[in-house]
Records
---
Amino acid sequence: MAKAILYDATKCTACRACQVACKNWNEREAVDTINRGTYENPLDLSTQTWLKMEFREIGDNGTFRWLFTRRACMHCTDAGCVKVCPTGALYHHDEGFVAYDKAKCSGCGYCVEFCPYSVPRMDTNRASGLGRMDKCTFCAAPGLDRIDAGDEPACVKTCPTGALTFGARATLLAAAKARVEDLKAQGHSDAQVYGENEVSGLHVLYLLDDSPETYGLVVNPKVPAAAAAHDVIKPLGYAVAGVVALGLLLNIMVARARIISREEEKK
Amino acid sequence: MQEIERFRKRARVQHWWIAAWAMILGLTGLFLFLSWFGPAAEGGTSRLVHRIAAVCFVAGPVVYFLMNPRTSWEWLKEAFTWNKDDIGWLQAAPIYYFGGPEDAMPPQDRSNTGQKLWMVVVIITGVIFVITGFFMWFLKGNISAEVYQVMLLFHDIAFIAAGAMFLVHVALAVFHPRMSEALRSMWGGKSSTHYAKTHHGKWYNRISAGESE
């Protein structure tokens, strides 16, 4: 049964308690922040910040709106990172989301280049290439597994307004759709759910009262075509190696037998 | 038994230098390429080894070229010079290598057509490996994800091509009854005069006539 997180942007006050709870549970360090004239901090996701709230100030026709978006791993069903991860450090949890076992990470960084949401972060040493990836683990990292313990992710647990909820994906989706109808009835004509079908379905669903573009979400995200090419060339690699090895074995056996028999004829 | 020198020492050192690092590169690359070997890449040590090997792999030909520019050009010319005897070799090779009669095989130069084909594959895939590897190592984060994805794809495709040819090269040089002295000549530099006559007739005739290699 797939599980998901539902983020209801209309209930979010951007208190950022989720950011703090995420760091607390996952043992991430605080990052020095700068006053840039906004409450939004830190500037971006990092190896230490797996979840952050984005603040957007929208002014149109004399009205002003302050929109908040949750930024973290979207836990795609068709996940580019899982496709290209060589070691299996990134994998689909039984509950559908993209779990991560950091102990297995090789530091190759392919996930960084194949994520349609630009989520994975690394502090790689440029010369040696050493360093491991970090991203939201859905609080299911080995040793820090809240899901296995029957608990909800730390961000959901701490959310004071109910903007974040955790549960069966189908249930959350139904609830979100019902709330879309409520919002539309209240005059929010652009109310919609984001994440139902994006990259075959996200395990972080968004309830928005405006378009995904306005909220800074990727419209029509795609797993890179090169990831599909991996699905072709990896089996091709096995096949070529197998056929060539078998062919050579056969070739050498036949050649040996024929040359030996010819030499014996000469005698 | 009469012997003839086929590979000078510096050429042999170069061959084994490239071979050793290429095998380390291939093995550590395999860990990231095929998921059967994925667990071997955990922690990233194999990736560090891959980078060290890459530097050594590139340094070999560069140093060789600086020390022996003329011989380097001769090798390159040899690899990329193909004529009707090479077409003949390609046509006759399947019969010849499955132990059939030797008559149909056109006389070969110091390197036969198959060996030249291998040199061409090594040079072309080597250049692809170095360029795409350079992008993924030094420009990661500075190039777009799309460019990186293409670089990785070409690195992988080059690996399939070079890996397949590597298997052929090793199997023929080490195990094939017809190539009985190929390994010996690349290791010690010499082959028997008889082997040179029968396998590299064109080259043998030139050498015996006192011409250059």
Note: Residues 1-223 of chain A form a domain with the Alpha-Beta Plaits fold (CATH 3.30.70.20).
---
Amino acid sequence: MECIEERRSARLRGVLAMVVAALVLATAFTACGGSNSDGDSAGTSDGGTIAYGVITPFTGSYAAYGMPEKASVEAAVNAVNAQGGIKVGGKTYKLEAKAYDSGFDPSKAVTEARRAITQDGVRYLEILGGELIPPVQPVAGDNALIFGVANGSTFLGADQPTTFRAWYDLPTSVAASLRYLKPKLGTDSPRVVMLYPEGARGKELSAASGKRAEELGYSATTTFTDPSATDFTAVLTKVLGDKPDVIDFGFTSPSAYAVAVKQARQLGYKGRFVFPDTLVQSVLNKTAGKGAAAGSVTSPLFTSFSTPAGRKWAQYVEDRSGPLQGWAAVSYDNVFLLKAAIEQAQSLEPTKVAKALLQVRLDHGLLGQVRYEQRPEVHDGYTMVGIKYPVGELTADGRVKTVASYVG
Amino acid sequence: MEALQALFTGLAGGATLALVALGLTLVFGVLRVVNFAHGALFMLGAYTCYACTEVAGIGYFPAILVSAAAIAAVSVVLALVVFRRFRGLELEGAIAAVALAVAIENAGIIFFKAVPRQVQGPLTQVVDLGSLHLPVQRIFMIVVAVALFGALSLFVARTHWGRALRAVQQDEEAAQLQGITVTQAMIVAFAIGGALAGVAGALVAPDQVLSPTMGTTPLLLAFVAIVVGGMGNIGGTLAAAFGVGILQSFVSTYWVPQAATWTSFAVVLLILAVRSRRPVVYA
Amino acid sequence: MRRSALILVALLAVGSALWALGANGSYYANVGVLTLLSLTLAVSVRPLLVGCEASFCHGAFYAVGAYAVAILTTRTDCSIWLALPAGGVVAALAAFVIGVVSLRSTGATFFVMTFSFLVLTTALFQYATGLTGGFNGISGVPSLVSFADVASFYWVTVGFAGASVLVFAIVDRSRWGLELRALGESYALAASAGIGRLGNLLGAFALGAFFAGVAGGFYASFISFISPTSFSFWLSIYVLTYVMVGGARSIAGPVVGTAIVGVLPLLSGWSDASSGVFVSGATLVILLLLPRGVVVSGLEALRRRAPQRRSTRAAEGTLASAAQASSGSVVRARAPRRIDRAEQPLMRVEQLSKHFGGVAALSEVTFEVHAGEVLGIIGPNGAGKTTLFNAISGFSRPSRGRVWFEGEEITGVPGHRLVHRGITRTFQASTVFEGLSVRDNVLVAGAVGERPGVLRRLVLPLHRDPGATAAADRVLERFELQGWADAPAADLPYGLRKMLGVAIAMATGPRLLCLDEPLAGLSEAEADRMMDAVASLSDQHGVTIVVIEHRIRSLVRVCERMLALDAGCLVAEGEPAAVLANPEIVSAYLGTPFTEVAHA
């Protein structure tokens, strides 16, 4: 019930609100007109620019992945252009990176993919997140190549000839660490627990990792965590009851496993951990304390880039996105593979480039000697192989020491 | 014993929820305002603690006090600027509160970026009783929650402002005739609620990695607690909050962790369905 | 209101055309589809909001529909066109189940219950792997049109969204829409006008869920792949925001709200967080400035100018007739009717008791009401008079005792059903539907006698129903409110509000009318007019009337018999003179004996 004075000023407020609403609408239309108009309507290949699209989360709970990926791609794009660009049919093309926020939401990803392909002329798309790739695949069709930056293989297959998995194989990474650890555990029947986040990826990868562990002589069990959980005491209480020797965190995020390590130690766990995905020491040391994960292994350890190119890349990415995320090197090497494929095919047409991608190889990539190969374990789809999986051990003062290396 | 460990974990979780829920129930009980922005206040409390300990270098315990004061202030500002406008418009007020929560959360995402932040608390010891491991930080949480509940109960029962709040809750007009305006009651209720949320945030900060979205789940579970415990009923809310915490813990330990959230809501649904067999119109 | 809705529909059509034309590629069409689906969700969550309940699980119906369509089209040979309405039906069934459990509560309890359903359905999608594919989701949902043709999909969606808006606009203007608005104003008052809460809200809930489910099917068909991550829990909340920003009171509200708040995140190229801040900030600012929403505030501002003149004239007219009435009225006491003992009493109350915890509000009250009489009930405050009313009119279940009406037992029958049987009561406070026009106040109660068919109730625009409108106007005339017919009831001065309260009750065509302190707060002249009206109701229309009153002087002029209550017990019964002379009554209530009973 508004009192009388309010009615008099209601008209004024009404006008004010109309102005606000009008401003809002006006901003919307200028925003939509002005958004993403960087440069010319590129990629229409009249000898100018090739657009490389990156659809990744810059917001939401996976936002930590967006910046490193974008920075890594930019580093690669700059390097390619500095080396003379991409030469097709006698013409030289510059490469250009375009980033889109997916917010890790499938319909946003589809919207942005449509924008990229139909408005910005993108023909080569890098997409982060296994759940976002299937909806985009029909949109891309034959008009765009998809590089899936994701674990899992639901989006791969012989029926997806223009989709490539630009990622390392997590189960291989787990196997590398477990192989190194086995003789050190002092038991003939070591027990490993796969503590993976719940989800499609979690189910698939924990099963594959478990299989590799058993091949190595471990007995493996899996327990799933709530992907958005920040407290692991309950689940650890359950897991530690079986007295495991090793806890494998899978692709659990660094913030989460830092807390889990701390809480496991508080609950009296004395065993080892495996961090097969990415290790962010700063978070781990800060949260769990230096040496809390001493003796544990991590693989792949992309942080030890000793080549000049590697060091330059690491510096570039760190400057732009904080502590180094070694996995982002995959995106870097991928750009060079794409360049090689385009030049091999001497065409910008995605299906031709796709075929060429299976024929080229990068000899001095940041990750090793990488190339794409068709593999039966991913439904005869195409995935990156030739990656080195260095194994490192965490020391008591919170640093990593490389101790072994495997190629997968 | 596993069950005792799970019980302790549940109590610690319930303690956090209790602090958030007490603030919510106070505001709702007195002013009939559903404050969806309360989770955002909890998050701000944690980040304030971070700013104090990691950026400004103050000790942890002073940081808790600073968080309480700061979030109380923020809460009062929100009350005066936003919630006062929606007196009597419950639904619009609820939506405005949601908009507020989303705005604060997203502003947090932009401002704090996606870099995970941690607070190093001083209470890192663990009390070991055989196979039972009790981190001191968590014991501290439980103690503080119970103490603050006690203080709040005393406040409501004995002090002038506590009685003023109860007066407003029972009959606004009569309270106004006694010289207590709704605005004054609003300031007091929101200040206390905000302070409790700030303390809750500061208490969990050393135990978790901070993120701008950390307030959502506690808010939802706190709502569960206050509806089950009775809106405006402080003792009931505390009991319900601990109940929810323990339920979450036991489900996570004995079944699967991902079932914890939906099990709590299923239980709530059942309780409410049984409670509301009588239609709302007729006494 | 009619005109502005047409304008908005026109704007929408123009806007859609502009979009489809202006789009150079599938991008804008893509945004268009998602926006139109949001619009459908906003429009379909509105009916329940009108009835004053906010459902926080509308997004769940969207998801249920999407999953139903996806499962039907990928696991069976069902065509997508058949699957879409099937998805809607599944969602409506889910709403029915959820509604039956949760619509017995209100406000925050209802919110928590619907939110719990949201959490549970999400868990179902995630873990019922056999049915829903779990986290892997379901892919390969066929498109409504050929796959790459986003523009055609867009037009089909325009058709669907347009149809949804049309359906809800029709409902809005129908009798049912008016009943929902009445429920939104006051559940108790609506019940006293014969409008049951549970049934009507359940219908609104299920109808809204149907459209949400079909919209979900559209989504599944558009993206061709759904998984639990496609449906964020925020969707249920955003959908409410769209409606509130535009204003829940108008059908145009959700349309405008979606345009302002729902489109931007899709259209702008900003990051999610920036969009989030902007959108929520804009929502907050708009709600702070215009709490009732953009459209509703705009319409109210327009309305405030025109009817002022009409109201003043009406007010002048009413005051004039009031002046006449007070100067010339001779309100005489009624002669007691000869009560024919052979006649069955209209209502019989036997040993009626009501306890609230330890307090006995009523103790073993027993009396009869005879057809055609006017019965007065007096007693001090707290004697249990209103409790008695609640018990005999179905607004409260007696703890013990029984009630018969026209020979049939009615103990425990809910109030809105008793209205249809012929018993109507008024309330001391909140006597009118504030947000409705004076005519609508009476119109909404007018269906009790008629029992209109489904089509007439749900589809026919109420203002085109001449019979109903004429009947309402007749009632208004009898109570001299016809000059105020189009004004909002909130504008009525106090005395006329009480009149309207009685008018609403009379519009239900009761055989027994229970008036609860109809004279409270009225001036002498207004009280006389009210009692004249009451007397004429009894004389000319044969309505049996029971009146609770404190103003004895006015009461004795119309009532033939009186009951006196004190502390929950029936203390005296009989002719007014005798009751008022009763020493217990004098000491408990009157103070001094009442000697001014004048007989005709």
Note: Residues 308-313, 317-339 of chain C have pLDDT under 50 and may be disordered.
